[in-house]
Amino acid sequence: HSSKEFALPIVEYASSLYWSGCFTCETLVLAMIYLDRLTKRNLDVEVSPHTCHRLLASCLLVATKYHQDNHNSNRFYAQLFQLSVQDLNALERYALCVLGYFLVVDRREFEAYRRVLLRAGGQR
Asked: Long-range contact list for 1-5, CB < 8 A, 24+ apart?
């Protein structure tokens, strides 16, 4: 994958993606669940300042395609995520493979993650 460094810290990067209006709240929760699953299923995944943006982007893309009926092209998301289309395509394939294409989330798991994210964002 690209060795490009991201200018924004991960919190600001994630916030900018949220405020872009391209993702539903449900999609963001799913992305966090997939990110958690991905890091637990592949212990070789290094979550670092260099990789966290890419991991978030890949999980957001997978969640968007799974949850939202209408979504944009990978070219659009690559520009939004500040990645090349080739890198984003590879990251999407990687995430799906590590997740074993298991994208179903039961209601209890979803609500638990939603509550955590709401608390982290200062909402109840």
From this structure: 1/54, 1/87, 1/90, 1/91, 2/83, 2/84, 2/87, 4/82, 4/83, 5/50
